Amino acid sequence: MKPRIIFIHGMFQNSKSWDQYPWAAHFEQLGFDVEAPSWPLHEGDPSELRANIPAGLGSLTLSQVYHHIRGIILQSPEKPVVVGHSLGGLIAQKLLAEGLLRAAVGIASVAPNKMLALDWGFLRNSASITNPFAGSDPYEMTPELFHQNFANTLSRGESDAAWSDTAVHESRQVLRDILGEDGEIDMTRPHAPLLLIGAEKDEIIPASLVRRNAHAYEDERSHHEYREFTGRGHFICGEPGWEEIATSISNWLQGHLTAVRS
Question: Does the keyword Glycosyltransferase apply (predicted)?
């Protein structure tokens, strides 16, 4: 049976984000059975989702997203690998903590347990999205905000094209929830192998926060590792040079999956 790998997108994206470059084909060629589901209320073409914001999007919670993905995981005949970007990385860590995965990779991952960074980009973005005065109105991702925060290492033209192809509007509540119980993980327990990847130029999740997240795991018998890629922004999976990240992940998995039984 082929090992299964599930890709989980982050906020302001859907499964189309993995289509910017052939992530699925890369791992399928290595013998993986690949799936990239969308969160609830995120299915469809991003341009249509921006033009017609799904009813109820503003009330979507982290718990709803997590249990949607968890349900997909539980349908696997064996424990899968999960690769998550941004908030998808936090979901990957939560699934790992539950013992549901063979291995997990978090790319520019949101950190659990109220870990914060005194980084202007991080604080600016977090405060803007979680603004309590905005209530349950979805946060609308504009081309300007996308270039400033997601695709800051791309030219404006490249960033606008990526926005058009992949960006969606988002629930503010999902990010608010990471500061509560739904954003907590017991980092003292044993866990399957974990790789966390930071992006040097990330304006949303600073690499220093991802590094701190990786080093916060306490069980010395469990493998947790941090890698950082220079010159990359938060849109690291959709930027030119994506092959370097994909190859680093696949090589890491090759070295660890042979030692992990489902």
Answer: no
